[in-house]
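Input record, target 12 of the design panel.
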């Protein structure tokens, strides 16, 4: 909406420059692209352009004189979209937009309602977003929680921006890590049955969750599994542990409000024979060779400093062959772009994935890898909690939600967690401050934001109890919204569709958080300065009610993108 207004004003300025050239007021061969920037204060206008400074060298004229010429040409048009145009400083052109656009913007917001912000920018292009994809070797930790919040918000943004985005979780349920999981559960199970000298295998898992699972098994079936030989028992425990731990992960995600469209299993990928076909393809391309009993992939062909093992000397795949097969499967499903959201320990894996995609014959630009950085939990005593799944030192997503729920109840626990996971750039380390998170006051940013929506709802509840119950948006005189605070809110609301596109294309949900915080601040300031319901000014009150109705729509739509609730009371 605001972007379209800028386009219209850009065309007006281009016409002004062209007319000045025709009248020989300016000597120019061509007109460069005209850019806009926000002004520092509303007193300086709504938008500004440095076009006069850009033209100074080619026109061989002082920039301020060029700006004066452009201003005079625009004023000669009597352009209804521009209320006022001023020249400032060395030659900046400050533009005040007329109130007509504001009325049009508010009508569009109110009419579109829940659909406001949706565009066809993505033209229906299909995007697969794979995120979380935690190994099924333990509960989801808080880093996975951050990935879940970010991935879910990115899909929401993409779909609203006109793409067809799909959520996918890849289950790494094959290979050595899950064998060590089965062996670790086997050790815990035998310990429960009195074999105290049994040890967790090297590289195994020490978490309390496996002790709990072993206790459940002992209570369910006693010593039944000891009847199996060790290899059969470990295999059985591997499958059982994957099943129950994956069910726990799904439960945590359900609680967190993240619902995947597709769950893909590595075992299924392997059972199709796809990894073997990948090996054959790479052999035909001359990308594999044998050394020390292992099969190596020529990663140096793609610019890496060393090659990579694809099949170990014991015949077991490294993750490269199944990963290549999995990404080939993604492309075969017809997606235009693949987005892989990876954890902080996968930074070095990005180049390998891009190389495998290129080796498969696809444009590596169709694969985007986003790294979600580490989350450090700061406890209520100000101490940082170190985490390691293998050592059994981890704070699970459920642990975090439980702690938050004790302070702010279950419903708001998810809102608080999502907000804190989303309010920083994906590439920034995040210190999750529990002290701030559990504070139900305006100094907690998520409640400050949600309170803006609740406050807007309270205004309409009060309206229904007073003489403004006959409020009609269509009959409100929006021309009465003349104050700077009112017009700045409308300007901010109009930015929402453009913001959605920018946030979707940059894969940066934190932009929405920052936008909503700014909008909430503007609203709280307006509310404290201006009486919305004023019996002495009924027409102005109805116009302000229309403004609050539009703000309510944008707050609700923005919070929905983040997966955060928009409460009507707080």
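The sequence produced for target 12 reads:
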């Amino acid at each position: 909406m605001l972007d379209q207004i800028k386009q219209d004003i850009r065309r007006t300025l281009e016409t002004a420059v062209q007319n000045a050239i025709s009248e020989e007021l300016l000597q120019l061969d061509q007109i460069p692209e005209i850019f806009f920037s926000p002004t520092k204060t509303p007193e300086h206008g709504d938008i500004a352009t440095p076009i006069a400074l850009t033209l100074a060298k080619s026109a061989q004229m002082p920039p301020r004189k060029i700006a004066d010429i452009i201003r005079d040409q625009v004023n000669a048009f009597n352009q209804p979209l521009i209320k006022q145009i001023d020249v400032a400083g060395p030659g900046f052109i400050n533009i005040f937009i007329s109130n007509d656009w504001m009325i049009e913007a508010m009508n569009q917001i109110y009419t579109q309602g829940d659909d406001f912000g949706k565009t066809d920018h993505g033209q229906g292009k299909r995007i697969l977003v794979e995120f979380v994809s935690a190994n099924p070797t333990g509960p989801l930790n808080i880093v996975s929680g951050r990935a879940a919040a970010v991935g879910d918000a990115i899909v929401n943004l993409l779909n609203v921006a006109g793409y067809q985005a799909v959520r996918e979780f890849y289950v790494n349920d094959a290979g050595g890590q899950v064998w060590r999981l089965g062996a670790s559960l086997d050790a815990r199970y035998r310990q429960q049955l009195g074999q105290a000298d049994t040890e967790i295998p090297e590289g195994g898992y020490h978490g309390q969750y496996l002790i709990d699972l072993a206790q459940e098994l002992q209570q369910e079936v006693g010593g039944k599994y000891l009847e199996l030989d060790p290899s059969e028992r470990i295999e059985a425990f591997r499958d059982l542990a994957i099943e129950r731990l994956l069910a726990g992960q799904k439960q945590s995600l359900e609680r967190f409000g993240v619902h995947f469209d597709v769950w893909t299993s590595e075992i299924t990928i392997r059972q199709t024979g796809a990894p073997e076909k990948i090996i054959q393809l790479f052999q035909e391309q001359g990308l594999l060779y044998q050394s020390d009993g292992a099969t190596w992939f020529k990663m140096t062909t793609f610019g890496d400093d060393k090659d990579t093992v694809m099949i170990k000397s014991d015949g077991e795949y490294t993750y490269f062959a199944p990963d290549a097969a999995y990404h080939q499967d993604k492309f075969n499903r017809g997606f235009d772009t693949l987005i892989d959201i990876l954890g902080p320990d996968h930074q070095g894996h990005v180049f390998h994935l891009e190389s495998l995609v290129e080796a498969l014959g696809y444009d590596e630009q169709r694969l985007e890898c986003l790294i979600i950085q580490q989350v450090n939990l700061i406890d209520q005593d100000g101490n940082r909690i170190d985490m390691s799944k293998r050592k059994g030192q981890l704070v699970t997503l459920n642990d975090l939600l439980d702690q938050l729920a004790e302070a702010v109840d279950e419903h708001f626990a998810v809102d608080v967690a999502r907000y804190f996971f989303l309010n920083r750039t994906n590439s920034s380390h995040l210190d999750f401050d529990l002290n701030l998170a559990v504070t139900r006051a305006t100094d907690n940013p998520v409640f400050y934001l949600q309170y803006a929506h609740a406050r807007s709802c309270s205004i309409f509840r009060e309206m229904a109890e007073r003489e403004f119950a006959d409020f009609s948006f269509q009959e409100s005189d929006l021309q009465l919204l003349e104050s700077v605070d009112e017009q700045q809110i409308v300007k901010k609301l109009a930015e929402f569709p453009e913001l959605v596109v920018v946030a979707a294309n940059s894969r940066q949900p934190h932009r929405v958080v920052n936008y909503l915080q700014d909008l909430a601040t503007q609203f709280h300031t307006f509310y404290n300065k201006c009486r919305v319901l004023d019996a002495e000014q009924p027409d102005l009150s109805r116009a302000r009610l229309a403004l609050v109705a539009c703000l309510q729509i944008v707050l609700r739509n923005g919070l929905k993108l983040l997966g955060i609730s928009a409460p009507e009371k707080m």
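The two ends are 32 Å apart (CA to CA).
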